[in-house]
Amino acid sequence: MPEVYTVKVEEGRLATDGKPSVGPVYRSIYAKDGLLEVPSDFKSPWDFFRDSVKRNPNNNMLGRRQKTESKLGSYTWLTYQDVYDAAMKMGSAIRSRGVNPGDRCGIYGSNCPEWIIAMEACNSCAVSYVPLYDTLGPNAVEFIINHAEVSIAFVQEKKIPSVLSCLAQCSSNLKTIVSFGSVSTTQKKEAEGHGASCFSWGEFLQLGCLDWDLPSKKKTDICTIMYTSGTTGDPKGVVIKNEAFMAEVLSVDHIIMLTDRVAGEDDVYFSFLPLAHVYDQIMETYCISKGSSIGFWQGDVRFLLEDIQELKPTIFCGVPRVFDRIYAGIKSKVSSAGPLQSTLFQCAYNYKLKYLEKGLPQHKAAPLFDRLVFDKTKLALGGRVRILLSGAAPLPRHVEEFMRVTSGSTLSQGYGLTESCAGCFTAIGDVYSMTGTVGVPMTTIEARLESVPEMGYDALSNVPRGEICLRGNTLFSGYHKREDLTKEVMVDGWFHTGDIGEWQSNGAMKIIDRKKNIFKLSQGEYIAVENIENKFGCMETALSHSWWLLWSLKEKPLRIGQKSTI
């Protein structure tokens, strides 16, 4: 009998009073005695950062490639102490502008050290940070500033003009703009004309000091309001409190501790997935909590792989289209090496795959071939990666299999939403039978399926299928100023994800459909969007690799269970 990775904690029930039937409630075997909770001495994500500074003040924390007029050099680093000092000064400067605990601060720009420093500055003074980004649609930045009542914003230098362009419509809220870099005299005057002040990074830093009394923090304080797109209408502000954010970080650590090797001071994380989304924020905060180093990409997809080769990360989080690109690149190199090398590679591949399928862990499946063959394929990600994570959309099974065999790393595919504070399910990296699934519930979450009769999904059948519903310690606290929308998705304490899952025999979850992709026609018939997309799926192959790579990095990543609308 295969090992089962979930435990039942409640029985299911048949449909009653017009409510659909629901399946049993399950939690991970790693939380069989109760869901993981945040220890009483942790009040805010600031505690993770502060404690790491105490332990590792001189360890590299944030790095970027040094630029000269002619070329890019190696990574240069800020230590944990450097970042702490900058965050403390920035936090003090935020307070000097009349921004108080509980107020909102916008952060607008690509991943870079300034993004993290601004985030930690907000954490230091109990100010809720609100990522700003324009990929949610026209006028999204203006909408978010006004809806969240953002009073101060840290903005990437090249994004300053777009903020100034909407300042006339946001002037009742936004009073302070801080550039990640410099700011021109003209831009300062334009901001002043709308009653706001505009500072360069250095100027704002000078307003703060190191020695000031940090305000008290509570687990129930709002950590961040993160806006996501809906199917129609304005973006929705997902409210995430400190306790949910911290519980997610601790759950990541808990799962990796039990099934792999946790991050440490020697680990290096590659930051390129948007920090405006919760997926990367959680992973970077996890790395910060463990004293690891974080290296940022240049922000240009053309040089993504070059940045990886220079940084040589040990932890890599990606989206399926990036892994698909790596898969295609390795396959191309193998086939171009000639018939003999291709045959030898395939023999090594088949041998290792056979032993992975038998249940052997990554490092024991084929150690000889790892040294002779797969050490070369590892170089696609710099040669040092030991933990691979994939999320945001379904990872094709053949790509997942290929990466598990050739990367020399464990690989976990996960599933989550902003409303679940990133991952709510994760595959166990060294359990090959979880290939093609999103794994088991995180140790902070309980899950059940709810039947969807109109789609033919029965949560109580021999193969349970239905809408995935969640409850636990890492759920959001509602949509900002939209109680009506909150009530639609939170029913009797359960968050309805809108995604259709299927429990596997080993307790893993497989995403098979999307509830909201079903539409009822005027004559009463139901149709699935997937059926239409599948008919025209071949059109997607006509798009260039550069387009779909750009899509996955620049646009809002798709949730698992959703399909691209390209």
TrEMBL record:
Give the transmembrane region(s). none
Question: What protein does this entry describe?
Answer: AMP-dependent synthetase/ligase domain-containing protein
Instruction: Report which gene this protein is encoded by.
Output: LOC100779735
> Which top-level group of life is the source organism from?
Eukaryota
Domain AMP-dependent synthetase/ligase: start-end pairs: 52-480
Q: Known InterPro entries for this protein?
A: AMP-binding_CS, AMP-dep_synth/lig_dom, ANL_N_sf
Which species is the source of this protein? Glycine max (Soybean)
Give one GO molecular function term.
long-chain fatty acid-CoA ligase activity
